[in-house]
Design a protein that fits this description.
Blueprint (H helix, E strand, L loop, with lengths): L8 E10 L7 E8 L4 E6 L5 H9 L8 E9 L11 E4 L12 H11 L7 H12 L14 H14 L4 E5 L7 H18 L2 E5 L3 H4 L5 E5 L5 E5 L1 H15 L20 E10 L8 E9 L3 E5 L6 H8 L7 E6 L16 H7 E4 L12 H11 L4 H14 L15 H13 L5 E5 L7 H16 L3 E5 L3 H7 L2 E6 L2 E2 L1
Parallel strand pairs: 3-7, 3-8, 5-6, 6-7, 12-16, 12-17, 14-15, 15-16
Antiparallel strand pairs: 1-2, 1-4, 8-9, 10-11, 10-13, 17-18
Helix pairs in contact: 2-3, 2-4, 3-4, 4-5, 10-11, 10-12
Length: 485
């Protein structure tokens, strides 16, 4: 990749409050990032990390969208005037995909920057190689897995050769090999181009040794810490961990659940799965989901983990074989979850999708959590008690009347898990349940799931998070391209 002209970033008392919100998303932030610096931007969920990146990218909008304070500059110009100098990879990869084909999508930014047509194909090829996305250029973007989409949007940003590269949770949905590849590709790109780098990431050990600096946002405005990574973690480690920051080496104060050998609540034999019947993802699967335990589904991106979870949850049909529920879990239409009504699924199998926004229905967090209980006919007192408990347990009580779509990524994930727990289903299916979580949010979520298991419920979790696998215990389904390992 060709060199870039690294950008200089300045913030002076900068802040942003979204329209309609009483409290600012971020406030009173002051720092200077010199050209070529590599900054790890940390802070608790909701501290404003993503908002700050959006501000640097010049995509926050005008006064109708919110109110800004202070100054934010890139090379002495406003971010809005510097968009060609900035590459932004959003927390939600779907939000960064524009075109229907892989090659076209990577080329989109270059075309908008006026890069000569003759030079774009080589940029596209180099960017895709850098992120390890080995798929045909005409592959439909809609056919990519969540992890593959993450690589795609990163490739699109790298192809632009920006002077400032902004990455918001770039490894959130990636398998361990994908994390290593993306981390290496980012390192290679900034080494070759010299670009200034700012990364928002809860996986601090992945990035700490690449960075020259750590900036930590305080939840109530300003900075908690700023400096060399090793010094910041050594001097402020305890305070940062208490504030929700993932400090390398800090212990997680939760029990580790053991393996179990109990009767199955769900099982399948000779199972073939697919979202499109013309493209079978896996076949011949033998699957068992024991009661009162966790079943963790792992494996590389693109092997069908989410598809298997949705099939077990009764949301997409089996292509062959059959998912069968234990007799005590059966609905009026029998033991096959796909044939159950939505009301029967509500109390039997609750599902948390990979993208939290796909399951939000109402205008406030409180109403969102009450959807399930109300559908089940619970009275007001019982519904309020459940809603209040979940809001408090997951640190969402101050946002009870906020619109779910205005939350940070980590807050949306906690809300999506809570909406399922509110209805108390016997089986809880979660796709990447700890995505985007700060330390406190992660501990709260995993502790809740452990409690559900201890109550006798079955948890099915698709995850790349080793700590989730360790603390939930249970048994593991490790998918590979050829089936279950």
């Amino acid at each position: 990749m060709a060199s870039a002209i690294p950008a200089r970033v300045q913030a002076a008392g900068w802040g942003w409050r979204y329209a309609g919100r009483k409290l600012p998303a971020v406030s009173d932030v002051t720092f200077t990032i010199e050209p070529g610096e590599r900054v790890l931007l940390l802070g608790a969920s909701g501290a404003g990390k993503s908002t700050l990146l959006a501000g640097l990218a010049g995509v926050l909008g005008d006064e109708d969208e919110g109110v800004r304070s202070g100054a934010l500059l890139i090379d002495e110009a406003s971010p809005e005037a510097s968009r060609g100098r900035v590459g932004l990879v959003l927390q939600d990869p779907d939000a960064g995909i524009v075109l229907s084909k892989v090659g076209d999508d990577v080329a989109f930014g270059c075309e908008n920057l006026g890069v000569p047509a003759s030079g774009i194909p080589s940029r596209v090829t180099a960017a895709l190689e850098a992120v390890g996305l080995d798929v045909p250029l005409d592959r439909p973007t809609a056919a990519l897995s969540g992890g593959q989409k993450q690589r795609l949007v990163l490739a699109g940003a790298l192809a632009m050769r920006p002077g400032l590269l902004l990455l918001d949770e770039p490894t959130a949905n990636l398998d361990p090999e994908g994390v290593r590849e993306v981390r290496a590709s980012v390192e290679s790109a900034v080494d070759e181009t010299g670009a200034t780098l700012v990364v928002v990431e809860h996986r601090t050990p992945v990035w700490a040794d690449l960075m020259t600096r750590v900036i930590v946002l305080a939840a109530d405005g300003g900075l908690l810490a700023d400096g060399d990574p090793s010094r910041v973690f050594a001097e402020h480690g305890r305070a940062l961990a208490e504030a929700g920051v993932w400090v390398p080496g800090a212990e997680i104060d939760l029990p580790v659940l053991g393996d179990v050998d109990r009767a199955d609540l769900l099982s399948a034999s000779g199972l073939a799965i697919a979202r499109d019947p013309r493209a079978i993802v896996q076949s011949g699967l033998e699957v068992h989901v024991p009661r009162a335990s966790a079943t963790v589904i792992t494996g590389p991106n693109g092997v069908g983990k989410s598809t298997l979870a949705l099939t077990l949850a009764g949301l997409i049909p089996e292509q062959s074989g059959q998912v069968s529920a234990a007799p005590e879990l059966a609905g009026r239409r029998g033991i096959r979850p796909f044939r159950w009504s939505s009301r029967e699924l509500l109390t039997r199998i609750g599902t948390v999708f990979q993208e939290p926004e796909h399951q939000f229905l109402t205008r406030t967090l409180r109403d969102e959590l009450a959807v399930g209980p109300r559908a089940l006919g619970w009275d007001r007192a019982r519904t309020d008690a459940v809603v209040d408990d979940l809001l408090d347990r997951l640190g969402l009580a101050p946002l009870a009347l906020a619109n779910p779509f205005t939350l940070s990524g980590g807050q949306k994930r906690r809300l999506s898990v809570a909406t399922v727990l509110a209805a108390s289903p016997e089986v809880i299916v979660l796709d990447e349940p700890t995505f985007g979580q700060d330390r406190r949010g992660w501990i709260s979520l995993v502790a809740l799931l452990q409690e559900e298991i201890m109550r006798g419920r079955a948890v099915i979790a698709v995850t790349h998070d080793d700590a989730v696998i360790r603390h939930l215990g249970g048994h593991r389904i490790e998918l590979a391209a050829s089936g279950i390992r």
